[in-house]
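Collaborator request, handled under Task 6.
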Amino acid sequence: MLVAFQGAITQGILWGLLVLGVYITFRLLDIPDMTVDGAFALGGATVAVLVVNYGVDPALATVVGMLAGGVAGAVTGILTTVFEIPAILAGILTQISLWSINLRIMGKSNTPLLTSDTIFSKISGFTGIPQSTATLIVGAILVVLVICVLYWFFGTEIGSALRATGNNEHMIRALGQNTNNTKMLALIIANALVGLSGGLICQSQKYADIGMGTGAIVIGLAAIVIGEVLGRLLPGGLTKFGSRLAAAIVGSVVYFLIRAIVLQLGMDANDMKLLSAIIVALALCIPVVIEKHRLRRSYTRGDE
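C-alpha coordinates returned to the collaborator:
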Protein backbone atom coordinates (compact mmCIF):
# COMPACT_ATOMS: atom_id res chain seq x y z
CA MET A 1 0.00 0.00 0.00
CA LEU A 2 2.82 2.40 0.89
CA VAL A 3 4.57 1.68 -2.41
CA ALA A 4 1.30 2.28 -4.25
CA PHE A 5 0.85 5.60 -2.42
CA GLN A 6 4.39 6.73 -3.26
CA GLY A 7 3.79 5.87 -6.90
CA ALA A 8 0.48 7.75 -6.83
CA ILE A 9 2.11 10.85 -5.34
CA THR A 10 4.85 10.72 -7.97
CA GLN A 11 2.33 10.33 -10.78
CA GLY A 12 0.25 13.15 -9.33
CA ILE A 13 3.26 15.49 -9.30
CA LEU A 14 4.34 14.65 -12.86
CA TRP A 15 0.76 14.94 -14.14
CA GLY A 16 0.54 18.17 -12.14
CA LEU A 17 2.47 19.92 -14.91
CA LEU A 18 -0.33 18.97 -17.30
CA VAL A 19 -2.86 20.19 -14.74
CA LEU A 20 -1.14 23.59 -14.64
CA GLY A 21 -1.42 23.75 -18.43
CA VAL A 22 -5.11 22.90 -18.30
CA TYR A 23 -5.58 25.48 -15.55
CA ILE A 24 -4.17 28.23 -17.79
CA THR A 25 -6.64 27.56 -20.60
CA PHE A 26 -9.64 26.41 -18.59
CA ARG A 27 -9.57 28.82 -15.67
CA LEU A 28 -7.66 31.84 -16.97
CA LEU A 29 -8.92 31.90 -20.57
CA ASP A 30 -12.19 30.02 -20.02
CA ILE A 31 -11.33 27.76 -22.98
CA PRO A 32 -11.81 23.98 -22.76
CA ASP A 33 -8.71 23.17 -24.82
CA MET A 34 -9.04 19.67 -26.28
CA THR A 35 -5.50 19.85 -27.68
CA VAL A 36 -4.30 18.47 -24.35
CA ASP A 37 -4.89 14.79 -25.15
CA GLY A 38 -2.83 14.97 -28.34
CA ALA A 39 -0.11 17.29 -26.98
CA PHE A 40 0.48 14.98 -24.01
CA ALA A 41 1.07 11.98 -26.27
CA LEU A 42 3.12 14.18 -28.61
CA GLY A 43 5.52 15.07 -25.80
CA GLY A 44 5.89 11.42 -24.83
CA ALA A 45 6.34 10.20 -28.41
CA THR A 46 8.93 12.88 -29.18
CA VAL A 47 11.00 12.08 -26.11
CA ALA A 48 10.81 8.32 -26.68
CA VAL A 49 11.91 8.50 -30.32
CA LEU A 50 14.75 10.95 -29.65
CA VAL A 51 16.11 8.86 -26.77
CA VAL A 52 15.65 5.39 -28.30
CA ASN A 53 16.26 5.97 -32.02
CA TYR A 54 18.73 8.86 -31.99
CA GLY A 55 20.48 8.53 -28.63
CA VAL A 56 19.67 12.10 -27.62
CA ASP A 57 20.31 13.02 -23.98
CA PRO A 58 17.01 12.55 -22.10
CA ALA A 59 17.12 16.06 -20.63
CA LEU A 60 17.47 17.63 -24.07
CA ALA A 61 14.80 15.28 -25.44
CA THR A 62 12.45 16.42 -22.68
CA VAL A 63 12.97 20.06 -23.67
CA VAL A 64 12.22 19.17 -27.31
CA GLY A 65 9.08 17.32 -26.19
CA MET A 66 7.98 20.45 -24.31
CA LEU A 67 8.59 22.59 -27.41
CA ALA A 68 6.60 20.11 -29.52
CA GLY A 69 3.66 20.55 -27.16
CA GLY A 70 4.00 24.31 -27.55
CA VAL A 71 3.85 23.95 -31.35
CA ALA A 72 0.63 21.94 -31.00
CA GLY A 73 -0.81 24.76 -28.89
CA ALA A 74 0.28 27.28 -31.52
CA VAL A 75 -1.63 25.35 -34.20
CA THR A 76 -4.78 25.50 -32.09
CA GLY A 77 -4.11 29.19 -31.47
CA ILE A 78 -3.80 29.93 -35.19
CA LEU A 79 -7.03 28.09 -35.95
CA THR A 80 -8.78 30.04 -33.19
CA THR A 81 -7.38 33.53 -33.64
CA VAL A 82 -6.53 33.76 -37.34
CA PHE A 83 -9.28 31.63 -38.86
CA GLU A 84 -11.82 32.31 -36.07
CA ILE A 85 -12.68 28.66 -35.55
CA PRO A 86 -14.35 28.15 -32.13
CA ALA A 87 -11.70 27.23 -29.58
CA ILE A 88 -13.20 23.89 -28.61
CA LEU A 89 -13.51 22.82 -32.27
CA ALA A 90 -9.97 24.04 -33.04
CA GLY A 91 -8.66 21.93 -30.15
CA ILE A 92 -10.55 18.87 -31.37
CA LEU A 93 -9.14 19.31 -34.89
CA THR A 94 -5.58 19.56 -33.56
CA GLN A 95 -6.12 16.61 -31.24
CA ILE A 96 -7.39 14.39 -34.07
CA SER A 97 -4.51 15.34 -36.35
CA LEU A 98 -1.97 14.67 -33.59
CA TRP A 99 -3.10 11.04 -33.42
CA SER A 100 -1.74 10.46 -36.94
CA ILE A 101 1.29 12.69 -36.34
CA ASN A 102 2.24 10.75 -33.20
CA LEU A 103 1.97 7.48 -35.11
CA ARG A 104 4.22 8.96 -37.80
CA ILE A 105 6.75 10.06 -35.19
CA MET A 106 6.98 6.67 -33.51
CA GLY A 107 6.34 4.57 -36.61
CA LYS A 108 4.28 2.20 -34.47
CA SER A 109 1.73 2.30 -31.67
CA ASN A 110 4.28 2.31 -28.81
CA THR A 111 7.98 2.79 -28.16
CA PRO A 112 9.59 1.16 -25.08
CA LEU A 113 12.48 2.75 -23.18
CA LEU A 114 13.32 -0.32 -21.10
CA THR A 115 17.00 -0.37 -22.12
CA SER A 116 17.46 3.38 -22.54
CA ASP A 117 18.58 5.98 -20.03
CA THR A 118 16.08 8.49 -18.72
CA ILE A 119 16.45 11.59 -16.58
CA PHE A 120 15.39 9.58 -13.56
CA SER A 121 17.69 6.60 -14.17
CA LYS A 122 20.66 8.92 -14.72
CA ILE A 123 20.02 10.79 -11.46
CA SER A 124 19.47 7.50 -9.67
CA GLY A 125 22.78 6.15 -10.97
CA PHE A 126 24.61 9.36 -10.07
CA THR A 127 23.23 9.72 -6.53
CA GLY A 128 22.63 6.07 -5.66
CA ILE A 129 19.05 6.69 -4.53
CA PRO A 130 16.23 4.43 -5.79
CA GLN A 131 14.81 5.45 -9.16
CA SER A 132 11.30 5.84 -7.71
CA THR A 133 12.65 8.32 -5.16
CA ALA A 134 14.64 10.14 -7.83
CA THR A 135 11.47 10.49 -9.92
CA LEU A 136 9.60 11.96 -6.97
CA ILE A 137 12.36 14.44 -6.13
CA VAL A 138 12.90 15.58 -9.73
CA GLY A 139 9.16 15.95 -10.27
CA ALA A 140 8.75 17.99 -7.08
CA ILE A 141 11.64 20.31 -7.98
CA LEU A 142 10.29 20.86 -11.50
CA VAL A 143 6.79 21.59 -10.22
CA VAL A 144 8.08 24.16 -7.72
CA LEU A 145 10.18 25.83 -10.42
CA VAL A 146 7.26 25.93 -12.88
CA ILE A 147 4.91 27.40 -10.27
CA CYS A 148 7.48 30.09 -9.40
CA VAL A 149 8.00 30.97 -13.08
CA LEU A 150 4.24 31.08 -13.75
CA TYR A 151 3.64 33.21 -10.65
CA TRP A 152 6.29 35.66 -11.85
CA PHE A 153 5.09 35.66 -15.46
CA PHE A 154 1.42 36.24 -14.65
CA GLY A 155 2.47 39.21 -12.53
CA THR A 156 4.06 40.94 -15.53
CA GLU A 157 2.17 43.27 -17.85
CA ILE A 158 1.61 40.67 -20.57
CA GLY A 159 0.77 38.02 -17.98
CA SER A 160 -1.79 40.29 -16.32
CA ALA A 161 -3.30 41.03 -19.73
CA LEU A 162 -3.53 37.30 -20.38
CA ARG A 163 -5.37 36.72 -17.10
CA ALA A 164 -7.68 39.65 -17.77
CA THR A 165 -8.51 38.33 -21.25
CA GLY A 166 -10.40 35.44 -19.73
CA ASN A 167 -12.24 37.70 -17.29
CA ASN A 168 -13.35 40.40 -19.71
CA GLU A 169 -12.09 40.20 -23.28
CA HIS A 170 -13.95 43.33 -24.40
CA MET A 171 -12.40 45.46 -21.65
CA ILE A 172 -8.88 44.32 -22.58
CA ARG A 173 -9.52 45.22 -26.22
CA ALA A 174 -10.76 48.65 -25.14
CA LEU A 175 -7.48 49.14 -23.28
CA GLY A 176 -5.56 48.54 -26.50
CA GLN A 177 -4.41 44.95 -25.93
CA ASN A 178 -4.54 42.41 -28.75
CA THR A 179 -6.48 39.51 -27.26
CA ASN A 180 -5.50 37.24 -30.14
CA ASN A 181 -1.89 37.52 -29.04
CA THR A 182 -2.71 36.74 -25.43
CA LYS A 183 -4.81 33.72 -26.43
CA MET A 184 -2.05 32.43 -28.67
CA LEU A 185 0.56 32.85 -25.94
CA ALA A 186 -1.62 31.12 -23.35
CA LEU A 187 -2.26 28.14 -25.62
CA ILE A 188 1.45 27.79 -26.38
CA ILE A 189 2.48 27.95 -22.71
CA ALA A 190 -0.30 25.60 -21.61
CA ASN A 191 0.46 22.91 -24.19
CA ALA A 192 4.21 23.26 -23.66
CA LEU A 193 3.57 22.28 -20.03
CA VAL A 194 1.38 19.41 -21.26
CA GLY A 195 4.16 18.23 -23.58
CA LEU A 196 6.67 18.47 -20.71
CA SER A 197 4.38 16.35 -18.55
CA GLY A 198 3.98 13.78 -21.32
CA GLY A 199 7.76 13.53 -21.78
CA LEU A 200 8.33 12.99 -18.05
CA ILE A 201 5.52 10.44 -17.73
CA CYS A 202 6.96 8.59 -20.73
CA GLN A 203 10.32 8.32 -18.96
CA SER A 204 8.70 7.41 -15.66
CA GLN A 205 6.66 4.51 -17.07
CA LYS A 206 9.45 3.55 -19.52
CA TYR A 207 7.36 3.66 -22.70
CA ALA A 208 5.40 5.98 -24.96
CA ASP A 209 2.05 4.85 -26.31
CA ILE A 210 -0.27 6.33 -28.91
CA GLY A 211 -3.14 6.23 -26.43
CA MET A 212 -1.29 7.64 -23.42
CA GLY A 213 -3.05 10.99 -23.78
CA THR A 214 -6.58 9.61 -24.00
CA GLY A 215 -8.67 11.24 -21.27
CA ALA A 216 -5.85 13.54 -20.17
CA ILE A 217 -8.15 16.58 -20.29
CA VAL A 218 -10.56 14.82 -17.92
CA ILE A 219 -7.76 14.10 -15.46
CA GLY A 220 -6.66 17.73 -15.67
CA LEU A 221 -10.16 19.04 -15.01
CA ALA A 222 -10.67 16.58 -12.16
CA ALA A 223 -7.46 17.69 -10.47
CA ILE A 224 -8.33 21.38 -10.85
CA VAL A 225 -11.80 20.95 -9.39
CA ILE A 226 -10.57 18.75 -6.53
CA GLY A 227 -7.89 21.31 -5.67
CA GLU A 228 -10.45 24.13 -5.68
CA VAL A 229 -12.86 22.18 -3.50
CA LEU A 230 -10.12 21.44 -0.97
CA GLY A 231 -8.97 25.07 -1.15
CA ARG A 232 -12.42 26.30 -0.13
CA LEU A 233 -12.02 24.38 3.12
CA LEU A 234 -9.02 26.50 4.09
CA PRO A 235 -9.45 29.72 6.07
CA GLY A 236 -9.84 32.50 3.52
CA GLY A 237 -10.03 30.05 0.60
CA LEU A 238 -7.85 30.45 -2.50
CA THR A 239 -7.54 34.22 -2.63
CA LYS A 240 -3.99 34.42 -4.03
CA PHE A 241 -2.92 33.33 -7.50
CA GLY A 242 0.03 31.34 -6.18
CA SER A 243 -2.23 29.36 -3.86
CA ARG A 244 -4.51 28.50 -6.79
CA LEU A 245 -1.55 27.14 -8.76
CA ALA A 246 -0.45 25.09 -5.76
CA ALA A 247 -4.02 23.85 -5.27
CA ALA A 248 -3.99 22.46 -8.81
CA ILE A 249 -0.95 20.32 -7.94
CA VAL A 250 -2.52 19.19 -4.68
CA GLY A 251 -5.67 18.25 -6.58
CA SER A 252 -3.58 16.18 -9.00
CA VAL A 253 -1.89 14.29 -6.15
CA VAL A 254 -5.21 13.69 -4.38
CA TYR A 255 -6.78 12.45 -7.62
CA PHE A 256 -4.05 9.84 -8.13
CA LEU A 257 -4.21 8.86 -4.45
CA ILE A 258 -7.93 8.21 -4.90
CA ARG A 259 -7.18 6.10 -7.96
CA ALA A 260 -4.53 4.13 -6.05
CA ILE A 261 -6.91 3.45 -3.16
CA VAL A 262 -9.67 2.32 -5.49
CA LEU A 263 -7.29 0.01 -7.37
CA GLN A 264 -6.05 -1.44 -4.09
CA LEU A 265 -9.66 -2.17 -3.18
CA GLY A 266 -9.95 -4.33 -6.30
CA MET A 267 -11.51 -2.05 -8.91
CA ASP A 268 -10.92 -3.08 -12.53
CA ALA A 269 -8.30 -0.84 -14.17
CA ASN A 270 -10.53 -0.64 -17.25
CA ASP A 271 -13.04 1.34 -15.18
CA MET A 272 -10.59 4.17 -14.46
CA LYS A 273 -12.10 6.43 -17.13
CA LEU A 274 -15.53 5.97 -15.57
CA LEU A 275 -14.06 6.76 -12.16
CA SER A 276 -12.44 9.92 -13.56
CA ALA A 277 -15.76 11.12 -14.96
CA ILE A 278 -17.52 10.40 -11.66
CA ILE A 279 -14.86 12.29 -9.68
CA VAL A 280 -15.19 15.33 -11.95
CA ALA A 281 -18.99 15.23 -11.74
CA LEU A 282 -18.97 14.93 -7.94
CA ALA A 283 -16.36 17.63 -7.51
CA LEU A 284 -18.46 19.99 -9.66
CA CYS A 285 -21.79 19.07 -8.08
CA ILE A 286 -20.85 19.05 -4.39
CA PRO A 287 -20.00 22.81 -4.15
CA VAL A 288 -23.30 23.64 -5.91
CA VAL A 289 -25.29 21.46 -3.52
CA ILE A 290 -23.52 22.95 -0.50
CA GLU A 291 -24.15 26.50 -1.74
CA LYS A 292 -27.84 25.79 -2.38
CA HIS A 293 -28.17 24.25 1.08
CA ARG A 294 -26.49 27.27 2.64
CA LEU A 295 -28.80 29.67 0.80
CA ARG A 296 -31.84 27.63 1.75
CA ARG A 297 -30.86 27.75 5.42
CA SER A 298 -30.25 31.50 5.25
CA TYR A 299 -33.68 32.05 3.67
CA THR A 300 -35.28 29.86 6.32
CA ARG A 301 -33.66 31.83 9.10
CA GLY A 302 -34.79 35.05 7.43
CA ASP A 303 -38.38 33.84 7.38
CA GLU A 304 -38.20 33.03 11.05
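The cover message to the collaborator said: "The mean pLDDT is 90. Residues 227 and 247 are 5 Å apart (CA to CA). Please let us know whether this matches your experimental observations."
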